[in-house]
Amino acid sequence: MKNIAILAENISKQYRLGEVGTGTLSHDLNRMISKLRGKGDPYLKIGDTNDRTTSGNSQYVWSLKDINFEIEQGDAVGIIGRNGAGKSTLLKLLSKVTKPTTGSFKVNGRIASLLEVGTGFNPEMTGRENIYLNGAILGMRKAEIDRKFDEIVAFSGVERYIDTPVKRYSSGMYVRLAFAVAAHLESEILIVDEVLAVGDAEFQKKCLGKMGDVSKEEGRTVLFVSHNMSAVQNLCNKGIVLSNGTTEFVGNVEESIQHYLKRNTDSINLLETKERKGSGVVKFAEINVFGATRETKPQSGQPFTMEFVLANNQQVNFADIEFDVRIDDQIGQRILWMSTTLMKETPNRVGNVVTFSMDRLVLNEGIYFITVYMTVNKDLSDWVQNAITFEVSEGDFYNTGKRVPALHSKVLVDYQVQYS
Amino acid sequence: MQQSKQPWTEIIQSKSSLFSVNLAEVWRYRDLLFLLVKRDFITFYKQTILGPIWFFIQPLLTMLVYIILFGQIAKIDINNVPQIAFFLSGITIWNYFSESLTKISTVFKDNASVFGKVYFPRLIMPLSIVFSGLMKFLVQFTLFIIVVLYYTYVEESIHPTIWVLATPFLILLMALFALGIGMIFSSLTTKYKDLTFLLTFGIQLFMYATPVVYPISAMPERLKWIIKLNPLSGIFECFRYGYLGSGTFETSDILTSTALISVLFIIGVIIFNKVEKDFMDTV
Fold first, then answer.
1. A404-418: per-residue pLDDT in tens?
2. Residue B273 covered by a domain
3. What confidence tens digit (pLDDT) does each residue in B104-128 have?
4. For residues A78 and A22, is the Cβ–Cβ distance under 8 A?
5. Which of A163, A224, B9, B274 is 20 to 30 A (C-alpha) from B229?
6. How much is the pLDDT for A46?
7. pLDDT at A112 exceeding the cut of 50
């Protein structure tokens, strides 16, 4: 008989739009009065409509709708989906940070969730004190931390500074210490959000290795959310693909990744994404990535276009907008950085589409992520990390019919070889 | 279904009974409570050198103002107790109550970043506040004890009674009261942030409905019943009766206070428990 670690039955999570968020009693009273007088809601945010329900005047969004799955003990499950698909909501429900609107999770075993590393770290306190506090916040008993203390310190590699306040730590040390605490949680089920996007490559490898041990050797159940497909592929044996709050695919990890990539390579509507920072004066509304034509996928050595559609309701002039595009590879290494600030001039007019293009795509085959960052008059307006994923397929960059293995280089350049 | 036979260790769902307060879980997290209090203690000591000294300056200055305002100008009858001892007794325990209450009432807002990422019984946070508050209270209480000793043995103008021994119980009652009211307010402030202003203002007014700057005996007869409704009145009178040997304290007052506070505390816990499950969606 299979041992089920988590059984999700008809999980739904509903959020209300507009209705919440005024946050003050006077506003709510004002709204009630407006309603009584038959006027519109004075505080409903413009642009807060939601595409997913599209049922006219609905003020509700189903962030998750009728999710069903079962996870066996010892499985490592990758939860994948684009921004806003409901991954974070699912993790929040499982972490008991908030409760589902309907349905239930039946859980067998203690859950430890890592939605963030270093929750509750206090900069004034030393590394030692923070290990204890953070461990306790994550649900460890003091005796348990005592027992694992040396192991945690050794894993983090900050022995020398363990009695220094963490405010003097470099950000790398801080993250390493935080992850070390989390990695030593004793639980049957481990839930990990994309916490590996921080820290240097060496440490990332160490973390991934530790997580691999957790699932493969210790036989614990792991739920892992990431945009990093290679990490998901390495760590997980099962996959759940979420899309617009529903499970689109459940199966083994290769199939899940294939399924996700197929759906996710062309374009994305970004307006509903919550995972962004900035004032929102001008926002990214849509990103389209394509190859030689709108219908072709990007291919090495072929024309390549990234089209950014902006939500520019306030008619901001292009001259006041600066924007950067960064392309990262699967494991989060920065490959390309492009920016309007590098160009000679910006047109002095209003518009809402910015296109970056190159005649010959210099990226080698693989999966890439685009992070976009935009300022208006030097103030951060919109910043969406890993806004879109796209796949570059193999192409004949050097017109020789030969290719560079993706492992050797992510970037392809024109060059000459001379013999003399 | 074969799975349904499996014993689940935990079920996460939307509906739960109003009274399903999981005290066993709170107990399991007692180490966290201890470490949170320790954190407050450490960060308190790592403040500026003047940090702890402010704990003395603040009650002393307040006392000075009260002596001038209520002792000299308003000439409230405080039953021939030395003014310094009288006002300091009120200020010391009032500070503990009002500061605990203020902090608890914004506990969800202040800890949103932690609550949003990790689950632990939320009740731990308000509890840690009342425990951490004891630290500052002890500093100020020491100051008060010095004053009491001075007037008892040097001036011989006050005569402490056996009710001094009730102090721990009185503190417990005040902590429970601050928890009860604070948790009710904290649940409301998740939705209505402007209630925090009402509370700050309310606490100021409430001080005057509590025998902090006057003894109950100085109240006109027809208004006494209002003051007696306040659960803090019994506590303050008992405290003064213990240390200063003055006032109109009756045992029944403290029993009424205990009953009222217990009820408020239970209501607070229930409301808090209900809100904690999905407050993240509204904050």
1. 887 788 899 989 999
2. yes
3. 988 888 888 888 888 888 899 999 9
4. no
5. B274
6. 41
7. yes
Whether B178 has a pLDDT exceeding 90, the answer reads yes
For chain A, domains (ranges, CATH) are 8-63 (no CATH), 70-264 (3.40.50.300), 267-392 (2.70.50.60)
SS (H, E, C) A111-176: EEEECCCCCCCCCCCEHHHHHHHHHHHCCCCHHHHHHHHHHHHHHHCCHHHCCCEHHHCCHHHHHH
Q: What is the pLDDT of residue A257?
A: 79
pLDDT of residue B120: 87
What is the pLDDT of chain A when averaged over all its residues? 80
Q: Is residue B125 part of a domain?
A: yes
Q: Residue B44: inside a domain, yes or no?
A: no
Query: Is A31 in the B-facing interface, judged by CB distances under 8 Å?
Result: no
Q: Are strands A238-243 and A76-80 parallel, antiparallel or unpaired?
A: parallel
Q: Place A92 in a pLDDT band, splitting at 50, 70 and 90.
A: confident
Domain hosting B196: range is: 54-281
pLDDT at A394 over 80: no
Query: Which of A129-143, A271-285, B11-25, B131-145 has the least mean pLDDT?
Result: B11-25
Chain B residues with CB-CB distance to A223 below 8 A: none
* Element housing A249 (H / E): strand A246-252
Compute the nearest-CA separation of B101 from chain A (Å): 20
* Cα atoms in the 13 Å half-sphere on the side-chain side of B127: 18
CA–CA separation, A273 vs A89, rounded Å?
13
Q: Nearest CA of chain A to the CA of B59: how many Å?
A: 27
End-to-end CA distance of chain B: 40
Q: How many domains does chain B have?
A: 1
**Which tens digit of pLDDT belongs to each residue from A303-361?**
999 999 998 888 889 999 998 999 998 777 889 999 998 988 888 888 889 999 999 99
CA separation for the pair B101, B179 (Å, rounded): 7
Question: Are the CB atoms for A91 and A115 separated by under 8 Å?
Answer: yes
Closest CA to A57 of A69, A71, A40, A42: A40
**Chain A contacts of B282, Cβ < 8 Å?**
20
Q: In whole angstroms, what is the distance from residue A356 CA to residue B271 CA? A: 54
Question: Which residue, among B219, B205, B207, B209, has the nearest Cα to B79 in the 3D structure?
Answer: B219
Total-model pTM: 0.71
Residue among A4, A113, A120 minimizing CB distance to B114: A120
CA distances from A139 to A181, B35, B118 (A): 11, 12, 9
H/E run at residue B142: helix B124-149
CB distance A393 to A367 below 8 Å: no
HSE of B38, CA atoms in CB hemisphere, 13 A = 16
Q: Write down the ipTM of this complex.
A: 0.82
The minimal CB distance from B3 to the residues A7, A28, A141 is found for A7
Structure tokens at B110: 């202040």
Q: Is residue B219 part of a domain?
A: yes
Per-window interface: A 81-120 vs B, CB < 8 A:
92-111, 113, 115-116, 119-120
Of B117, B191, B278, the CB nearest to A115: B117
Q: What is the pLDDT of residue B17?
A: 59
B47 versus A282: which is more confidently predicted?
A282
